[in-house]
Backbone:
């Protein structure tokens, strides 16, 4: 090193509060002071990062030290060990060459007994940084393999906040009955024709849990509710109880995303209703989607209102007035959903509709609410919750229990009193009175796509 008195900066780091003794902050700083005193160097300032990983350079003390080096006046940076500066090979070389050496500051590591003022020291920096990177990669690989093994064994490992409908206790997902009711209802409402926005509004109005469209969409797309554990693009069979049937989950997925690629998805956006056939109409000539603009369904290639959807700039396929094409498709739906078909789907003899729950399911939900109320009382008795919070939660549980009990006590309609024509009349009356989003959800559940070829219209059904 240089003969003149040097002014150096010391740097120390630990990853956790439980670092081994010989890596503790006190041990590192003590050795830095002793080393500088033995060399006759002036230790200007000690920069300490406690609880920061060596895999990133975004550490407050490190950044302050680099600012001091850039301002000048620091002849060298001293660390106890190379990996205290960084565990990344790329970051180590970048910090030393592009930050320290570029601003006239050498780098000294006490444990490895070398510094960058010598050619050998600079060569050793590169070698040791390779081993630091290797150690980091091995740790990451072991951690990843452990998570894969845990996933294959069926254990959930998604973090401290469990998915809605579950509590995370003792390393396991356990059903939260109050939230589980809401999750099941979210799927039932969607399958009954509600949009994501409508589902969030209805759930928020009925329960104390805050529901947003984004939360609804996250729940509807999460395979954890079918008893799966998802990790790195793979689903594994979980050991936690499922909340929804796999068939219902897949039916919801078809409504939200459609079948096949994103370009054939029937619903452009699950949040916004748009028009009755939004996202369903396609050009049979150029393959572009049709959009609803200025009162007509029009080929994107012809309207050119969104360049990224243009398939053939010279396409001249016909446009259809929105009302005219809507009525044509509704007529085909009416021909498909005959009174006999609707009576078979909606009649109590064929089972409850998707949005309704069987008596056994209602009784299970009521029992779950009673269990939640009992736990609230226990929490109050051990002073874990204040009285005001217990009363608020108990009131919500009581209101939900009364609603479920009323559904359980309601007498089922008599099948004999409903003729097929009556079922059809009631269904189409409800269809006409429904909002655009509900009507579109019904269409998307039955129609794969509508192709327009001039004045010819072809409907491809999902059945």
Residues:
């Amino acid at each position: 090193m240089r003969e003149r008195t040097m002014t150096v900066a010391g740097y120390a780091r630990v990853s956790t509060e439980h670092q081994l003794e010989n890596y503790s902050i006190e041990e590192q700083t003590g050795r830095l002071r002793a080393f500088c005193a033995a060399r006759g160097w002036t230790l200007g300032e000690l920069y300490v990062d406690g609880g920061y990983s060596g895999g990133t350079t975004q550490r407050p003390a490190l950044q302050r030290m680099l600012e001091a080096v850039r301002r000048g006046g620091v002849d060298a940076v001293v660390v106890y060990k190379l990996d205290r500066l960084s565990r990344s090979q790329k970051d180590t070389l970048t910090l030393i060459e592009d930050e320290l050496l570029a601003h006239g500051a050498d780098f000294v590591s006490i444990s490895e007994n070398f510094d960058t003022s010598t050619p050998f020291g600079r060569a050793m920096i590169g070698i040791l940084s390779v081993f630091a990177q290797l150690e980091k990669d091995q740790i990451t690989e072991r951690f990843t393999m452990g998570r894969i093994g845990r996933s294959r064994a069926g254990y959930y490992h998604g973090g401290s906040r469990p998915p809605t409908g579950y509590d995370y206790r003792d390393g396991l997902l356990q059903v939260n009955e109050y939230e589980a009711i809401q999750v099941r209802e979210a799927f039932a409402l969607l399958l009954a024709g509600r949009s994501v926005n409508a589902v969030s509004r209805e759930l928020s109005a009925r329960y104390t849990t805050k529901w947003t469209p984004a939360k609804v969409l996250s729940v509807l797309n999460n395979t954890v509710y079918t008893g799966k554990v998802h990790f790195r693009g793979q689903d594994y069979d979980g050991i936690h109880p499922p909340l929804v049937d796999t068939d219902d989950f897949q039916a919801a997925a078809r409504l939200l995303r459609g079948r096949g690629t994103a370009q054939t998805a029937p619903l452009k956006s699950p949040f916004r209703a748009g028009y009755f056939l939004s996202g369903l109409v396609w050009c049979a000539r150029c393959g572009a989607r049709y959009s609803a603009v200025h009162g007509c369904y029009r080929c994107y290639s012809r309207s050119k209102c969104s360049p990224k959807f243009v398939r053939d700039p010279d396409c001249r396929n016909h446009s259809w007035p929105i009302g005219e094409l809507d009525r044509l498709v509704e007529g085909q739906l009416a021909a498909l959903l005959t009174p006999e078909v609707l009576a078979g789907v909606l009649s109590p003899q064929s089972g409850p509709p998707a949005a309704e729950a069987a008596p056994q399911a209602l009784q299970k939900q009521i029992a779950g609410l009673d269990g939640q109320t009992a736990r609230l009382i226990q929490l109050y008795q051990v002073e874990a919750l204040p009285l005001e919070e217990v009363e608020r939660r108990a009131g919500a549980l009581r209101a939900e229990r009364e609603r479920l009990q009323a559904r359980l006590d309601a007498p089922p309609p008599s099948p004999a009193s409903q003729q097929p024509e009556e079922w059809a009349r009631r269904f189409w009356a409800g269809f006409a009175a429904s909002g655009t989003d509900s009507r579109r959800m019904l269409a998307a559940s039955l129609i794969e796509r509508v192709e327009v070829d001039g004045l010819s219209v072809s409907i491809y059904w999902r059945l």
Q: What stands out?
A: The chain has four domains: 7-145, 172-257, 261-347+418-463, 352-416. The longest helix spans residues 119-152. The chain has 16 helices and 15 strands. Confidence is low (pLDDT under 50) at residues 258-273, 348-357.
